[in-house]
Amino acid sequence: MAYSPSRRSFLVGAGAAAACLAPAARLHPAELAPATAAEAPARQLILVAAEREGRLLGPEGPASRLWTFGDALFPVIRMRRGERLQALLENRLAEHTSVHWHGVRVPNAQDGVPYMTQPPVQPGGTFRYDFTVPDTGTFFFHPHCDTSVQLGRGLAGILVVEGDETKPYAADRVLALKDWRLAPDGAWLPFTSDAAAARAGTFGTVRTVNGEAAPRIDLPAGRDARLRLVNLDPTRIGQLGIEGAEAAIIAIDGNAVSPVPLDTWRLGPAMRLDLAVRAPAPGKAATLMDYFAAQPVPLATLVGAGTAPGKRAAFDPPGLRLSDLPVPDLDRAEPIDLRFASASGGLARVSADADPLSGALLDSFCTAETTHWSINKRSWASRDHANVPPPLAQLTVGRSYRMKLGNETPQSHPVHIHGMTFRVLSSNKRDLPDHYADTVLLTPNERIEIAVKPTEPGDWMVHCHLIEHQETGMMGFFRVLA
Ligand code: C2O
Ligand code: CU
Hints:
The chain is mainly β. It is built from four helices and 30 strands. The strands form six sheets. A six-stranded mixed beta sheet has the order 10-9-12-17-14-15, with no helix packed on it. The longest helix is centred in the N-terminal third of the chain and has 4 residues, at about 145-150. The radius of gyration is 21 Å and the shape is globular.
């Protein structure tokens, strides 16, 4: 593992004190031996989803029962573009799960959406994921049913696909931002409430970076470091900035942008931001801040470590190479409108027998009891309504689409589309850099235009990544035809 959140505060896995947890005996999402020489070199990974103890309230604090994929909270998998990943998921939880590779342009069968792209992996069951990573960038992975609970307890990991640097940075760190719904004794508080799901969602009580409250992160003093910020929180939108050091945005959702000085950046759930930071002088500190609060919150301290380089050129961070993404043809693009609104109640009914998705209707882990939200006046099936909406739109591989995303609510919605990386063209409210993304934040009453050229056939989810919104109706799918 290239990563260990906090060895001190993170006692998990086979050696953990709590015998009652019966965690998996082996594991660490380990980098095992590469595959035989006969086939393309593949990265082998074992993800054992299980309950493990961890301390999120400080090294002396009480333990909490996390759900993780291995010994490390948020394991970081580093690969090279074009490498093949073979990941075996073993489910040792008491409920079904799966792995969705957020932002990675995988074939549809690898997308990890229970009932839509694969059967749910039942307790005791396994599933083999096998795909080649087509793009460089900062990605993550997480389950796709009962997500407010499974992700709420920590079930997620980071996938870094390297190969985009034109000049190496002196350091490359992942900063996984996530809050936790914890009582002072380390027990979980409810992950959702109906009232919160209808508004901005349920916020965590403990804010952490890499599972630690306001950690100290050492960076090579006076040199330029790359920070990969990943918002793993189900709910919280941050307005992130850095105090005490020069910083520039170099990638959004892992996709290169020509470096722009960082003022602040609004990072919704599931969104990523790669920063270049000129690390402070030896022993000096800078602070990663969240300004989206009455009182700005310091999230992490960046400390200059080691000796400073003799002479420092002015801060001018090297740009990254943009991955070989499908480029939509704006002149020939067909228009699609997506309106994000509250639930209308007018739901299209599909008979359970006639629809292959009907299994999802019977499964309370994948559908909510109540519906608060909709896309184009349709809500994702709720348990009560026993129906599945038809696709939001039918697309064709290789054609281009211009989509108008409109937010008709007073809440923000980080809108995510599976299986395709889109170009963000414009907003009616904000000056956004021209960039590629897989998740874009729609602030209240904002309209954003994107363009996309799908490359993989299949049914691809479209949803708000504020998980309680997703789970109460704000989800649909595109059917992409070959
Ligand atoms: Cu990260 Cu369907 O989501
Ligand atoms: Cu939302």
